[in-house]
Design goal:
The protein is an alpha/beta fold and about 550 residues long. Helices cover about 40% and strands about 15% of the residues. It contains 21 helices and 17 strands. A seven-stranded parallel sheet has the order 3-4-2-5-6-1-7, with helices on both faces. A hairpin with a 4-residue loop joins strand 15 and strand 16. The radius of gyration is 26 Å and the shape is globular. It starts with a helix and ends with a strand. Bound molecules: adenosine-5'-diphosphate (ADP), magnesium ion and zinc ion. Adenosine-5'-diphosphate binds next to loops. The site of adenosine-5'-diphosphate (ADP) has 14 residues, from loops.
C-alpha cells in the first residue's frame, strides 16, 4: 500500500515538474508583468521566480529552494498584490518581518504583522482585516509561535477561509520544520495542521538550504508530499573559498586578521563571524585597538544599538561587523567582499548561508575559514545534544581538513548537486593544487588508542589537547608512553590526524558536565576495532609536515 502511494506521489511530482510553468499565457500573466514593473520596479524576473509564482497562482503547493539573496520573497509578495484575498507569511524572525514590512510600505503595499509583543491596536486591526473582504491588506506576517498559541488568530483564519478570503500560505525558512535540519524549531510542527484545516489553500515553502532528505521530511510534516519542488543551482561562481589554519596563539591570530583587513581587504566591506558573544566582543575590542573600524553585533545587544551598527556598516563607516550568527537573516548588502569565519560553522548549511552573504552583486568575493581543532570542541559541547548536531559539525571539519578536493565540489556534493562544472581557480585547492599524497595513518591511530587505554587504566580522561600532549611526551608522566615515538611532524599536523580520526569514527567524543561547562574527552571510536587488524588502512589526504 505504501509503495502504491509512493508511486502515485512520484508520478504526481513528475507530471507537475513537466508542466510549462514559465508560460506567459496564464490568466494573471499580464497583471503580473504590470505589477512587477510599475509597483516593484523590477525589469526581469530571476530564474525560478516565474515558475514559482505561476505554480502557486495555479493553487499548487510548492517548495522553492533558492540561495539566500536569490529573491524568494518576491515569489509570494508578487502573487499577494495581484490576488484579491490575503497571503499569510510565516516567518521565524521579527527583524526579518520588520525588514519586509518596511520594504512593502515604501511600495505602498498594505501589510501587517502578528507576534507575541505586537500592540493591541494593530492586532485588532489585522484580525478585522482577515475577515473583511474589502480590506486593503494583502499580506499578514506571523511567527509560528503566534500561530501555535493564538486561538483567536486561528479562528479568524477559519472565518477567512469560509469567506474565500484566504489565498495562500508562504512559509519562510521552511527547513525549520525538519528535525534533520540544522535549524529545527519546534513551533514549526504546528504548521502540519494547515493542510487539513484549510484544504485547497496552497502552501509555498521557502528555504535557502535543504538536502533531499530534509525536503522529504518537510513535505511529510506539512502534508504536501509530491508537491512541486523547484531548486535553484547552488554554485556561486564569484565566491572564492579558502580555509586557513588558525594560529593557536591569540596574538598571532589577531595579527593575521589585522593584516587581512589592512591589506587584502583594504577598503572592502565584510563580516567576521565568531561563535560566542564573548568572542565577538573581544575580537571587536582587539581589532579596534589596531585602528580598524569594526562594529560588534550579537543577540544580547539592544535593538537600537544593533540597527545603529547595521547602518554604520551599510554606509561604510565600519569596514566589517564582528558578529555571531544572530547577524544574518535579512542582511541586504550587495557588496560584501569578504566573510571571515573566525571559528568554523556548526553545519555546512550554516556555512553556506553565512558565507553566501558575500558577493551578492556577482563580483568576486572571498569566503575564508580559520580552522583549528580546539574550535571543534568548543562547538561540539554546544551541539552534541541535538539529534544530528555532531554529524553536521563533523561535515564542516571534513571540509576544512580536505587538502585535495575542490572546495566547490565538496559543497556541491554536500547539497547533493552533481559537480561537473569548472571552479576556474576560485578556491584555494584549485588555485594551488596540493602536492601531498594519500597516506595511511592507521599506526598513529593505534598509538593514540594505546595512550587512551593507559589513561583509562590510570582513571584519567583525556581531552584532545591532553591526548596530543601525551603523544608528544608532554604533560603528566603517568600518561606518557616511552615506546611510542614522538611524532616527526608539527603539532598542527597531529591535530589534523586527530581530527581525521574523530570525524571518521576511530575516535569519539565523550561529554561530561562540570559545574560551569561541558567538557569533551576523547575515547576510542566505534570503528576502533578495525585497527586491531594490522592490514587495515586509514587513508588521509594530507601533507604530513
Ligand atoms: P531571499 O529571501 O531569497 O534571501 P530576498 O527575497 O530577500 O532574498 O531578495 C534579495 C534581494 O533581491 C532583495 O533586495 C530583492 O528586492 C532583490 N530582488 C528579488 N528579485 C529580484 C529581481 N527579479 N530583480 C532584481 N532584484 C530582485
Ligand atoms: Mg528570505
Ligand atoms: Zn576549486
Amino acid at each position: 500500500k505504501e509503495k502504491l502511494r509512493d508511486d502515485a506521489l512520484l508520478k504526481k511530482s513528475f507530471s507537475l515538474s513537466k508542466k510549462n510553468w514559465t508560460s506567459e499565457d496564464f490568466a494573471w500573466s499580464v497583471q503580473l508583468r504590470k505589477a512587477l514593473k510599475d509597483l516593484f520596479r523590477i525589469e526581469k524576473l530571476r530564474e525560478l521566480q516565474l515558475p514559482t509564482i505561476n505554480a502557486i497562482m495555479s493553487k499548487e503547493d510548492v517548495i522553492l529552494i533558492m540561495p539566500t539573496g536569490g529573491g524568494k520573497s518576491l515569489c509570494y509578495q508578487l502573487p499577494a498584490v495581484i490576488s484579491k484575498g490575503i497571503t499569510i507569511v510565516v516567518s521565524p524572525l521579527i527583524a526579518l518581518m520588520e525588514d519586509q514590512l518596511h520594504g512593502l510600505r515604501k511600495l505602498e503595499v498594505k501589510a501587517g504583522m502578528l507576534y507575541s509583543k505586537a500592540d493591541k491596536e494593530s492586532v485588532k486591526m489585522i484580525m478585522t482585516a482577515l475577515v473583511d473582504k474589502n480590506s486593503p491588506i494583502k499580506l499578514i506576517y506571523v511567527t509560528p509561535e503566534y500561530m501555535a498559541k493564538s486561538n483567536r488568530f486561528m479562528s479568524k483564519l477559519q472565518k477567512a477561509y469560509q469567506l474565500e478570503h484566504l489565498e495562500r500560505f508562504a512559509i519562510d525558512e521552511v527547513h525549520c520544520c525538519s528535525q534533520w535540519g540544522h535549524d529545527f524549531r519546534p513551533d514549526y510542527k504546528f504548521l502540519g495542521v494547515l493542510k487539513s484545516m484549510f484544504p485547497g489553500v496552497p502552501i509555498l515553502g521557502l528555504t535557502a538550504t535543504a538536502p533531499a532528505k530534509i525536503i522529504v521530511d518537510v513535505q511529510k510534516m506539512l502534508d504536501i508530499s509530491g508537491c512541486l519542488v523547484l531548486r535553484a543551482p547552488f554554485n556561486r561562481p564569484n565566491l572564492y573559498y579558502e580555509v586557513r589554519r588558525k594560529p593557536a596563539d591569540k596574538e598571532t591570530c589577531l595579527a593575521m586578521i589585522e593584516n587581512l583587513l589592512k591589506n587584502r581587504f583594504c577598503d572592502k566591506s565584510g563580516i567576521i563571524y565568531t561563535t560566542t558573544i564573548k568572542d565577538a566582543e573581544q575580537l571587536t575590542t582587539d581589532l579596534r585597538s589596531k585602528g580598524i573600524k569594526v562594529g560588534c553585533y550579537h543577540a544580547m545587544l539592544e535593538a537600537n544599538y544593533r540597527s545603529e551598527v547595521y547602518s554604520k556598516w551599510m554606509s561604510g563607516k565600519y569596514q566589517a561587523v564582528v558578529a555571531t550568527i544572530a547577524f544574518g537573516l535579512g542582511i541586504d548588502k550587495p557588496d560584501v567582499r569578504f566573510v571571515i569565519h573566525h571559528c568554523i560553522s556548526k553545519s555546512m548549511e550554516n556555512f553556506y548561508q553565512e558565507s553566501g552573504r558575500a558577493g551578492r552583486d556577482g563580483k568576486k568575493s572571498v569566503c575564508l575559514v580559520l580552522y583549528r581543532l580546539a574550535d571543534v570542541f568548543k562547538l561540539s559541547t554546544m551541539v552534541f545534544q541535538d539529534k544530528v548536531g555532531l554529524q553536521n559539525l563533523y561535515k564542516v571539519v571534513t571540509y576544512c581538513l580536505d587538502q585535495t578536493s575542490c572546495r566547490r565540489a565538496l559543497i556541491a556534493t554536500h547539497f547533493e548537486e552533481s559537480w561537473e562544472k569548472n571552479c576556474a581557480e576560485m578556491c584555494d585547492r584549485c588555485r594551488k593544487p596540493n602536492i601531498g599524497k594519500q597516506i595511511d595513518i592507521s599506526r598513529y591511530c593505534r598509538q593514540l588508542h594505546r595512550i587512551i587505554t593507559k589513561a583509562v587504566q590510570n582513571e584519567v580522561r583525556l581531552t584532545a589537547l591532553k591526548l596530543i600532549d601525551a603523544w608528544y611526551g608532554k604533560g603528566a608522566t603517568t600518561l606518557r608512553m616511552s615506546d611510542i615515538p614522538v611524532p616527526n611532524f608539527t603539532r598542527e599536523t597531529a591535530e589534523a590526524v586527530v581530527g581525521h580520526l574523530l570525524v571518521n569514527g576511530y575516535l569519539q567524543e565523550d561529554f561530561y558536565f562540570s559545574a560551569y561547562s561541558t567538557i569533551s574527552y576523547l575515547k576510542r571510536g566505534p570503528k576502533s576495532g578495525l585497527v586491531l587488524d594490522n592490514d587495515h588502512k586509514i587513508l588521509f589526504n594530507y601533507e604530513l609536515c
